[in-house]
Amino acid sequence: MAQPIQAGRPLITVITVALEAREFLPACMQSVLEQTCADFEYVVIDGGSRDGTREIIEAQASRLAYWHSRPDRGIGHAFNLGVEHSRGEWFLFLNADDYFADSAALDRLAAAAREAVDDDVVYGQVDVVTREQQARKLRGPIGWPLRPREFLLRQTIPHPAALTRRSYYDRVGPFREDFRIALDYEFFLRELRRLRTRFVPVRVACMREGGLSADVGRSLREAYRAQRIHRVAPAALLAAVYLLLAAKAVIARVVRRLRRER
Asked: Is the pLDDT of residue 261 over 80?
């Protein structure tokens, strides 16, 4: 478990977890290291990559608060290792294929975090972009004020744009290692009715399409399992919502295929 914040520690820790991430990690790290915010540290957790990822991290080692490259038990374990090796009052996960929207993105969130007294999460919005070096916007902004009922239908807190207060992590415990896609969703469901959030309608990060989140079926199954674990609504309602979202995903997939075949 992370230790309490002490005087002189940074306001924010940005955490990047990576595995075989050579293609996009340089852009991610550059976007963090170019931030104008003066009160943050950067932690990078690599799962033992052998594709050159380690060398990319090593080249920036002097600018990192902590980093390592060694095998772990998966993304949930990597998230927890990032928090355990961080010192900030708040932490934000920027995955290796994502990047900050501009050099002032963290400053915008930091300003809101400094005003937050009791909030557990301070968050903004993300754009979804293509998986290209010169990425193009596909959709966005994504990220909306938290409404518990709406949260059962979709993830409204995008983690690349979300500052989570360390005390929330200490209160609810670490990320579950048996979730691979909806682990941040499950993390916030634990105290959904008591979760205190502050939404800032500003673009913070760009999230590349694809990756683990492209497995819509698994994402929906994990979200449904998290909802049942935490009993956030009657079981019949949760099952109905899951079936509705699964049907919409199938229809969307068919429509995309038909458009490609034209």
From this structure: no
- Show me where the domains of the chain are located: 12-261
Reported residue count of the chain is 262
The pair phi, psi for residue 122, each rounded to 5°, is -120, 125
Of 241, 211, 210, give the one whose Cα is nearest residue 225. Answer: 241
Confidence of residue 3 (pLDDT cuts 50, 70, 90): very low
Residue pair 88/15 in contact (Cβ under 8 Å)? The answer is no
Q: 12 is written with which tokens?
A: 């924010």
**DSSP letters for 138-175:** EEEEE-----HHHHTTS--S-GGGEEEEHHHHHHH-SP
Domain 12-261 CATH superfamily: Spore Coat Polysaccharide Biosynthesis Protein SpsA; Chain A (3.90.550.10)
CA pair distance 121, 219, nearest whole angstrom: 22
Q: Could you give the CA distance from residue 203 to residue 201 in angstroms, rounded to a whole number?
A: 7
